[in-house]
């Protein structure tokens, strides 16, 4: 900017603010610019300063004309800050007192038992109950003096429903009764399966693919067997399956000892509901791992291999290489890198599962994939 001008910068002091507020504030600087021409709008220097301040987002304040005016403005600002600080402290005290009231335990009725809970928790439960009541009432068709709702229920629960309606009518001094209508073809009745806890996770798995229609067979009865079996075929490993069995045992222990209240969360609830499925997955994975002779991806030689290294004789100067795999090769031996194996002349086959000699064989993958495919078909 041409002309005589003087600018002085002073960083804003944040130490006067409380520590909890100072960390959230941005560092700013105060500056004052002296130039020729004064604050007249016709001054070229004034216009340039205003444009620069607007471009950088700076806030402009009028400069006091005298020392007395500056002192008066400082006193007004200090008084305003003191009033706001007093208001803020008063609001904080009010806020803390309200929080202490809401967190103070009060007597609450929970399923016929008196318990002491924070007041805000009692309010929350009241709101949840009221919301549930009105959400249920929205399913009813209201008239002048009655409300009516159509619903499906299992036929074997009719007697229980009538007993509940009679008890509630006597308790609430209102008349409630059940009217039966003959079922029609449209709309179709909903699907309902009365399941034990064992089948619930398998039913949820089946429902992800589709819900059976009314009076159709429930595929979850079959899924509780073939799904863990196929899991074991794909992920057969004694170590892997044993870990799943341990996890299932821990979930059964938590459920049996009523420690569910201490462990909350959607993931914990899902694991507790699927503890039977996890147990079956572990058992079938362990069974398939025994068949594959696979423990943490390692073959275990428990009964001694039934294969031996062949010892062909070579003439001087010849080098032995593993033969390439071909359909014409005899199927009574398989190859490891750098050596050939052949079955022993005497002895019985490996008692349980695969012979450990298959681990590391050149055709190991082909053999195991073919076996798993046939195993899953069975």
Please give a structural write-up:
The chain is mainly alpha-helical and 378 residues long. Among the domains are: 5-97, no CATH class; 199-295, no CATH class; 301-311 and 332-377, no CATH class. Helices cover 45% and strands 11% of the residues. The protein has 11 helices and 9 strands. It has helices at 19-22, 44-55, 67-103, 119-137, 158-172, 200-207, 220-234, 238-256, 266-273, 275-292, 364-377; strands at 5-11, 29-35, 105-110, 113-118, 141-142, 147-148, 307-309, 335-336, 339-343. The longest helix has 37 residues, at 67-103. It is flat and about 115 Å long. GO terms for molecular function: ATPase binding; proton-transporting ATPase activity, rotational mechanism.
Largest sheet: 3 strands, antiparallel
Strand content: 5-15%
Assign a percent range to the helix content.
Answer: 40-55%
Summing up helix and strand content along with how strands pair, one would put the structural category as mainly alpha
The outline comes out as: flat
State the separation between the terminal residues, measured CA to CA: 91 Å
Low-pLDDT segments: 313-336
Count every beta strand, where a strand is a DSSP E run of 2 or more residues.
9
The average pLDDT value, as a whole number, equals 79
H-E order: EHEHHEEHEEHHHHHHEEEH
Entry keywords:
two-stranded antiparallel sheet, 11% strand, 11 helices, transport, membrane, transmembrane, ion transport, single chain, mainly alpha, V-type proton ATPase subunit a, 378 residues, 3-stranded antiparallel β-sheet
